[in-house]
Amino acid sequence: MQNIGVNNSRTKQTLLFCLAAMTCCWMSFSSCSKTSAGGSGIPNKPSQPLQLPHGEVLGEMVSASIGAAGGILTSKDGAVTIDIPAGAVTAATTFSVQEVTNVLKGKARSYRLLPGSVNFLKPVKLVYNYGGQVFDGANPDLFFLAYQDKDGYFYSANKTKGDRQRQTLTVSTKHFSDWTFYNQYDLVFPSHSLANGELRLVQGEEATIQLRAIPIEDYNKDDSKMVLPDLSGNLLVQKAIWDYSPKKGTLLTTTPGTALYKAPAHVDKAERTFINVTINGNLGTDNLGNPVQQIQIRQPVVILPDSYFTLTEDGLDIAATSFSGEYTPALGSQLTAQFANGYELTCYVDGGVGSFAYDMAFMPGKANMQLTINAGQAMLVYRPDNCDVSGELFFSPGAFAVKSVARRQGEYFEGEFTVTLFGFEYCETGRKKSLSGKFRFRKVD
């Protein structure tokens, strides 16, 4: 995403998005609660605060007891650091940070910071390092931190300070809750999820794409409620310019702020195109205080052939050279895939269609996975929960989602997964891999 200077402040931003209030589903985007002095054409209308259920726990919790002298705590993945100054609390207090699902449906990771019931005597500095997260085509100068309170209401931290070189977002706060960051302007996909920041479609598949603009009640406040707008119209969204390149498949704008992309009917190998959306107007300021007049959003789309099994690791796609699957009612699905880089992946899912958490192999209603590299030592979905204490196991966050199983010849295995795999010698080396994958192929015999 790219921004160009203009002469209006962020306090005059009035682009909107629309969410279905009680169902938590993203819908088409329209109006706002106040009119911009820049003449965006958005009417003055009452607004309803944005309230969503809290996210579910994903990653490991990191905790520390920090007292009046202060201290620092960092999330397990290194993304979030909280710096508690001396005097923020008067007695030893247990602080913790843990990843949770992002209910805003954005691309950023979300984290639960505790304690949530304490108002600190001095502001605590929160630093979010977004390096390593995938935001192809996004401008990090337009990222702002946001939090969700105990009742599920979302607030924008309008004093967020960005540092593109260090890839950080920083803000001071006197309380904890669920924190993430959001892109003020973004694309959402009501019927599809992104894999490693990409929209992945099978040849001939269609996807609806909606332009989202996030409104806020009062940009003059340090923390301002995000709001749920009505459906009466947003002229800036309506006038957005849609395009795609290279011209593979078709892209049609269907309603204001919404487009339909259809992948080509046939591809011999994975192909790519990029959907580009340009918004012009008085768009406020970025997290460096610079005014913005134009936003350009780019979304990569990968078009896959009819049968495939792909892995993504560190932003790199790896296509399987061969793959197969078998389903039995008693044991569920067993899938295997071999890759040119020496990876061999074996997946076990004890069940049919659904989303499965990771556990030991053949546990009812669970998934398991094993990765062998160059016929060497296997990597597993579990490791010791505490390397100093034997017995308890920690299982990978993420899930193995199965959309269809092939019970007979000609039917499809289809699904996707995210997983962290641990080396057998994890306690000595800390070796692990975070992978995502997607597959669709027919049962041939």
Search tags:
445 residues; mainly beta; eight-stranded antiparallel β-barrel; seven-stranded antiparallel sheet; 2 helices; 35 strands; globular; disordered N terminus
- Contiguous runs where pLDDT drops below 50 for at least 5 residues: 1-46
Regarding quaternary structure, how should these chains be classified?
Answer: single chain
Per the principal axes of the C-alpha atoms, what is the gross shape?
A: globular
> Which structural class matches the secondary elements?
mainly beta
Strand tally is: 35
Percent strand:
over 45%
Mean pLDDT: 83
- Largest sheet at a glance? 8 strands, antiparallel, barrel
Number of helices: 2
Please list the strands of the largest sheet in the order they lie side by side: 24-25-26-27-29-30-34-35
Describe this structure in words.
The protein has 445 residues and is mostly beta strands. The strands form seven sheets. It has an eight-stranded antiparallel barrel. The chain has a seven-stranded antiparallel beta sheet with strand order 3-6-7-13-9-10-17, with no helix packed on it. The N and C termini lie far apart (47 Å).
Quick recap:
The protein is mainly beta and 445 residues long.
Topology:
Blueprint: E1 2-4, E2 48-49, E3 62-66, E4 71-74, E5 80-84, E6 93-100, E7 110-114, E8 124-129, E9 143-148, E10 154-157, E11 161-163, E12 168-173, E13 178-183, E14 185-188, E15 199-202, E16 206-213, E17 223-225, E18 227-228, H1 235-238, E19 241-245, E20 250-255, E21 258-262, E22 271-280, E23 294-304, E24 308-313, E25 316-328, E26 332-339, E27 343-349, E28 354-356, E29 367-373, E30 378-380, E31 382-386, E32 389-395, E33 400-404, E34 412-423, H2 426-429, E35 432-442
Parallel strand pairs: 15-23
Antiparallel strand pairs: 1-23, 2-18, 3-6, 4-5, 5-8, 6-7, 7-13, 8-12, 9-10, 9-13, 10-17, 11-12, 14-16, 16-21, 19-22, 20-21, 22-23, 24-25, 24-35, 25-26, 26-27, 27-29, 28-33, 29-30, 30-34, 31-32, 33-34, 34-35
